[in-house]
Amino acid sequence: MSVEVAAVRPRAAAEEGYLRRLWRVVGEHRMLLVGLLILAIVLFMTVMGPLLVSHGPLETNPELKLQPPSADHPMGTDNFGRDIVSRVVHGARLDLLIALSVVLIALGVGSLVGTLSGYYGGVVDDVVMRITDVLFAFPSFILAMAITAMLGNTVPNVIIAIAIAYIPYFIRLTRGEILSAREMQYAEAARCVGNPEWRIMYVHLLPNCLTPSLVQATLCLGWAILDASGLAFLGLGIRPPTPEWGVLVSEGAQNIISGQWWTSVFPGAVIVFTALGFNLVGDSLRDITAREER
Amino acid sequence: MAQREALLRIEDLSVTFPNRDERVTIIDRVSFELGEKEIVGLVGESGSGKTVTSLTVMGFLPPSARVEGGQIWFKGRDLLRLREEEMRRVRGREIAMIFQSIRSALNPLMRVGDQVARVYQLQRGLSRREAYQEAVRILNRMGIPDAERRARAYPHQLSRGMCQRVLVAMMVACRPALLIADEPTTGLDVTIQAQIFELIKDVQQATGASLLLITHDLGVVAETCQRVVVMYAGQVMESAPVESLFARPSHPYTQNLLRSILRVDKVVEIPEADASLSEGVTYGLRGCRFALRCPGVLPPCWEEGLPKEEVEPGHWAFCHSCG
Q1: So what CATH class is B6-232?
Q2: In the 3-class helix/strand/coil scheme, how is chain B assigned residue by residue?
Q3: CB under 8 Å to B95, separation ≥6 — which residues?
Q4: Across the interface, do B174 and A191 touch by the CB < 8 Å criterion?
Q5: Which domain holds residue A97?
Q6: What residues does CATH 3.40.50.300 cover in chain B?
Q7: Element (H or E) spanning A218, and its range?
Q8: Segment B122-152, tens digit of pLDDT
Q9: ipTM greater than cut 0.90
Q10: Mapping DSSP to helix (H, G, I), strand (E, B) and coil, where does residue A77 land?
Q11: Of A214, A216, A105, A116, the residue nearest A167 (C-alpha)
């Protein structure tokens, strides 16, 4: 009888735990909810947007150039008469693609290298840490600028450039976590039953060390959008006429002075909105994981 | 005893660790052996080198540590000379270790069944499915009720006692010839402790493994072990069959140690430990490290080397005053 009760408990606790806990966590962190809502809107815009807008992003119309916001063009038109809503919505795909690729590359490379560095320590660690020191010495945006300038401005190059600038963050985070996890006895126990080193590192240690990196990854999604559009704004990243948020802001900037503010302000607001969403979610996740860790 | 071929024979093992600029000898010329199917207790205070000795056997010393000399013979091979890949084949299959900190010895992100199954995959080359079935079977044998369901649990969903059972299952899955248990019941209730010792003993008997049991608990040693090795400050003080050691301890340290066991039914006078002795002084001694605290210290005790005196057949004291 008592055995039966004891046997049922662990599973029941786990099952009711997940949904309830999610509710509790979201309830305690309103900012997480706001961030998730923003991201949901952005995601909807990215996936469905291009199907809903009536104009193409590259469709020019000289007669309707620099029109203020109206029913047909909610965000107005630019100096070629292109619909800004359409350009913003199409740009979302590119910007999110860039942000996701950047973070996946940075997280992937950063975790792999950080794990090696933390696990082996010694010379390997010294070398890796000095390299990250060098990368950290440059502000990440300046570094990304330099790399794009060097590689040439195509979408893959922009992704690589920003990813390189972000890799050191993930190396440092993972290494720190591995250093403390390495002392845990499950690593030793795993070695004890004959696991090869790579399995201990990447199957046993790394998954236990990912939490801070995943939080950082969420924050980096926002930064990557800012950096990608920043590069495009400076003419170092994606080039006009490709619909990309930074390009839109940059193209519109010249019209602000003559009063056509909408060409630049709306795309800019979308960038801010999206980055804010990622930041809110990232910050809340950091608070939550820091608290749950205890 | 002497006639039986030793499964594990540690000879003159010395291990040093760095401390500032110098190297401190943490294990000083330790020798003892373990026969087939024998249960040997390794006792001593915290910091006496019990764990470091077992880690050396497993090849788990931290990079800063250095083996200065000696051999560890296991089935005719010197473990200290094996390469890492060869050592990996020894671990798990031939020697396995049950750890002290139970919770942290299981990967928190892996279901316990998978962790046990992994051993079968690695060591016996079983397929995922077969390995998992074997895992459930062995968990069952370890006295885990409703093993099929428990196998799907994560370590944090199980009690510490259960976790230790899982760990024992993991370690004996491939029937190692030698099982090292490093204070396997730290942090468990007394009743659960008894169960775990019972389990380890059963497993040892069922698999015919030898067992090196590292513990503070002399009661457990008396009940479980056939022979005892007493360590102090990295040196072996005495090595004897259990009955002989408890009945007639020869080494002054062992005598003090046995005298310090608390008993409910009488007042025990605990031998005084001199707090003024720093570990640095003790570990710097070239001769017997107990000399500083020894009531019967003799001049040769301060000199290099410990004598090996056979007090009774199979009962050795490493002491000048016992000769």
Answers
A1: alpha beta
A2: CCCCCEEEEEEEEEEEEEECCEEEEEEEEEEEEEECCCEEEEEECCCCCHHHHHHHHHCCCCCCCEEEEEEEEECCEEHHHCCHHHHHHHECCCEEEECCCCHHHCCCCCCHHHHHHHHHHHHHCCCHHHHHHHHHHHHHHCCCCCHHHHCCCCHHHCCHHHHHHHHHHHHHCCCCCEEEEECCCCCCCHHHHHHHHHHHHHHHHHHCCEEEEEECCHHHHHHHCCEEEEEECCEEEEEEEHHHHHHCCCCHHHHHHHHCCCECCECCCCCCCCCCCCHHHHHHCCCCCCCCCCCCCCHHHHCCCCCCEEEECCEEECCHHHC
A3: B57, B58, B74, B176, B177, B178, B179, B180
A4: no
A5: 2-293
A6: 6-232
A7: helix A211-233
A8: 888 888 899 999 899 989 888 888 888 989 9
A9: no
A10: strand
A11: A105
Which residues on B lie below 8 Å from A192 (Cβ)?
58, 60, 91-92, 96-97, 99, 171
What's A243's domain CATH number? Answer: 1.10.3720.10
For chain A, how many structural domains are there in total? 1
In tens, the pLDDT along B16-40 reads 988 888 888 888 889 898 888 899 9
Tell me how far apart the terminal alpha carbons of chain A are, to the nearest angstrom.
34
For residue A291, give how far its alpha carbon lies from the nearest alpha carbon of chain B (Å). 17
Instruction: Give the mutation candidate from B82, B144, B146 for the A interface (greatest A CB count, under 10 A).
Output: B146
Residues ≥6 apart with Cβ < 8 Å to A11: B149, B152, B153, B157
| B137/A contact by beta carbon, under 8 A | no
Phi-psi region of B92 (alpha: psi -120 to 50; beta: other; left: phi over 0): left
CB contact under 8 A, A191 and B60: yes
pLDDT > 90 in chain A, percent: 28
pTM over 0.80: no
Q: Which two tokens stand for residue B92?
A: 């798990």
Contact flag B123-A193 (C-beta cutoff 8 Å): yes
